[in-house]
Design goal:
alpha/beta, Rossmann fold, five-stranded mixed beta sheet, 5 strands
């Protein structure tokens, strides 16, 4: 485990499905969903993944105010830290400048956002060869509710 590290989150983009539920997402358009990854304290041999379920705001705002997850817990458990940005917030806009047009708001639901996170976590685990790692999900306020609902719906 690293000592006296400075956090170094990197920004990535994931092609998230806009509509996960019509036809099980088959043929749905995608949008670029922003997420952050920090490996500062990650133990590649045994470290879990700590995932922050982003809520209604820019993902960097939550990163900047979540030291308990990004530092304390990450260091304690040797965890890989991932922060997902909620659809329709920050730079994760499914329809670009038209995201808040009435006709496009139908996809702004907790269920769609949760499935974004499920698919993102699966993709990151697969790409990094971490399929066997535990995922600890947290968040604050609405993001905390998303974390609890993710645990219930996608254990």
């Amino acid at each position: 485990m690293a000592e006296s590290n400075t956090l170094n989150p990197q920004t990535y983009w994931y092609n998230a499905t806009i509509d996960h539920y019509d036809n099980h997402g088959a043929g749905s358009a995608t949008y670029p969903m922003r997420y952050l990854v920090d490996k500062t304290y990650f133990n590649p041999e045994s470290g879990p993944i700590i995932f922050y379920a982003g809520n209604e705001g820019d993902v960097w705002t939550f990163w900047d105010n979540s030291g308990f997850m990004t530092t304390t817990l990450a260091q304690e458990f040797g965890a890989l830290v991932i922060f997902g940005e909620h659809r329709y917030f920050g730079e994760s806009m499914p329809f670009g400048d038209a995201s808040y047009d009435r006709k496009n708001l139908t996809f702004l639901t907790a269920e769609q956002a949760m499935y974004d996170y499920v698919e993102l976590i699966r993709d990151v685990k697969s790409n990094l060869g971490l399929e066997d790692r535990a995922v600890i999900v947290g968040g604050g306020s609405y993001g905390g509710m998303l974390a609890a609902w993710l645990r219930m719906k996608y254990p």
